[in-house]
Amino acid sequence: MVYATLAAAIVAEILGTTAMKYSDGFTKLWPSLGAGLGYVIAFTLLAQTLKTMSVGTAYAIWSGAGTAVVAAIGMVFIGETVSAARIAGIALVVAGVVVLNLGGAH
After folding, report:
1. How far apart (Å, rounded) are the C-alpha atoms in residues 47 and 50?
2. Is 90 in contact with 68 (CB distance < 8 Å)?
3. Is pLDDT above 80 for 70?
4. Which end of the chain has fewer CB atoms < 10 Å from its terminal CB, N or C?
5. Where, by residue number, does the polypeptide cross the bilayer (predicted)?
């Protein structure tokens, strides 16, 4: 159940960040509200996750997955530059999360 809560926190963070992109510096109402709501949900669910999961593991998964997915969304849907360096960066983020998790969660 803790991983489902963490997954929902990641989805909320991704949606909040994507909405923030479309808020035009918080000058557009609906995307701004979407960004705020996304982050309120994300932090609430992350806080619930931290009741039973170590902070290092939870935050590594939450931030790493969010970073990788938002970077991919930027490249695929928003027209941001696709380059070998950016793809390698995403792969390194994912690898870092895996390595942190292989270290154990005590």
Report:
1. 5
2. yes
3. yes
4. C
5. 29-47, 59-78, 84-103
Per the CB < 8 A criterion, the answer to whether 61 and 97 are in contact is: yes
Q: How far apart are CA 21 and CA 106, in angstroms?
A: 36
Return the structure tokens found at 64.
């790493």
Instruction: Supply 83's token pair.
Output: 């380059």
**CA–CA gap between residue 76 and residue 95 (Å, rounded):** 21
| One-letter identity of residue 33 | L
Total number of domains in the chain: 1
Its domain, for residue 81, covers: 2-102
- pLDDT tens for residues 51-60? 999 999 999 9
Structure tokens given for 84: 């070998």
Polymer length in residues for the chain? 106
